[in-house]
């Protein structure tokens, strides 16, 4: 009995020593990996991927866009065509328009149709917006991104309008008058039509202009790689495409970790230097981005309460 107990103690002691040896070995392995964490997270830089984010010239490397080879069903194709038609934006007559011929909100104006008319709650108010360029000439085509609203500051009430592009430099805005009292009209230019065309080009040519990143971790070792719908280069990637919707999403595969070790996801930033000098003139915050368009006449109407008979 004593011998069996002694043997059991010896066995337990050997197992404890073996466990200690494994623990120490793993500790040194982790210490080594921690030393590699910097090089692991810089793996993108070493392969010139991070450097490509700041490049403004086109690269010969093809982006990883395997999702473009997907075959759509008839229902999916019809849905895609419907969505594309819904976001279709009118094009200027010329591919490239000089800045002086682009929309100038300071010289554009709007007028209330029948400003002295009798309005009551539930009626429709019509506003005509007339766009001009920086030379003071009327625009001959549409495509400007406008925002229009009616509001009553004292009541803290407001509503947006329905904008109709007449494709000749003029826009009609329709408001439903929802409350009584003085109602003011405000119209602003968010983006001129020329800037919209630049944004459309960037959407098609540079879908990676906004890039993202994901973190991968196992134990004390972690890596961070870039993610997007398309990834440049021929590096191995992790495919996180949604199996149900088919929405594509890819991340560069970590150097030493598996794709299943991803623990977080965040926006990485914006690529810069994508605009030419001429194109950048269409995106001036104090000139033609989110600038108010003033009225050449009354900018408010009086709304009477709705009468019931």
Walkthrough of the structure:
It is elongated, with a radius of gyration of 31 Å. A hairpin with a 2-residue loop joins strand 10 and strand 11. With 309 residues, the protein is of the alpha+beta class. Strands 2, 3, 4, 5, 6, 7, 8, 9, 16 and 17 form a ten-stranded mixed β-sheet that branches. It has a five-stranded antiparallel β-sheet with strand order 13-14-11-10-15, covered by helices on one side. Among the domains are: 124 residues, Immunoglobulins (Immunoglobulin-like); 61 residues, no CATH class.
What is the CATH-assigned architecture of the domain at 99-198 and 281-304? Sandwich
Number of helices, where a helix is a run of at least 4 consecutive DSSP H or I residues = 6
Radius of gyration from the CA trace?
Answer: 31 Å
How much of the residues is beta strand, in percent? 25-35%
Number of strands: 17
Task: Please describe the biggest sheet, giving its number of strands, its sense, and whether it closes into a barrel.
Answer: 10 strands, mixed
Please, what is the CATH homologous superfamily of the domain at 99-198 and 281-304?
Immunoglobulins
Pfam family, one: Neurexophilin
InterPro entries: Ig-like_fold, Ig_E-set, NXPH/NXPE
Protein name: NXPE3 protein
């Amino acid at each position: 009995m004593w011998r069996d107990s002694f043997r059991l103690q010896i066995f337990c002691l050997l197992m404890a020593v073996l466990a200690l040896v494994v623990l120490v070995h793993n500790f040194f392995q982790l210490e080594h990996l921690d030393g590699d964490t910097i090089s692991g997270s810089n793996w993108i830089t070493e392969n010139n991927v991070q450097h490509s984010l700041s490049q403004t010239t086109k690269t010969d490397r093809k982006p990883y866009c395997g999702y473009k080879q997907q075959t759509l069903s008839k229902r999916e194709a019809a849905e895609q065509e419907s969505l594309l038609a819904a976001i279709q934006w009118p094009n200027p007559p010329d591919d490239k328009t000089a800045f002086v011929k682009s929309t100038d909100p300071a010289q554009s104006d709007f007028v209330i149709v029948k400003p002295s008319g009798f309005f009551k709650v539930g009626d429709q108010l019509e506003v005509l917006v007339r766009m001009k360029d920086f030379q003071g000439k009327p625009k001959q085509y549409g495509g400007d991104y406008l925002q229009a609203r009616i509001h009553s500051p004292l009541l803290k009430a407001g509503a947006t309008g329905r904008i109709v592009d007449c494709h000749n430099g003029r826009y009609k805005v329709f408001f439903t008058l929802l409350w009584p009292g003085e109602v003011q009209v405000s119209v602003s230019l968010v983006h001129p039509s020329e800037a919209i065309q630049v944004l459309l080009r960037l959407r098609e040519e540079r879908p990676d202009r906004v890039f993202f990143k994901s973190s991968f971790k196992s134990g004390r070792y972690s890596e961070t790689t870039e993610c997007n719908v398309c990834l440049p280069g021929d590096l191995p990637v992790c495919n996180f495409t949604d199996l149900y919707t088919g929405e594509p999403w890819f991340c560069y595969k970590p150097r030493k970790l598996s794709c299943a070790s991803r623990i977080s996801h965040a926006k990485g930033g914006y690529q810069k230097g994508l605009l030419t000098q001429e194109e950048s003139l269409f995106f001036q915050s104090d000139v033609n981005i989110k600038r108010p368009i003033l009225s050449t006449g009354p900018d408010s109407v009086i709304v009477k309460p709705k009468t019931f008979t």
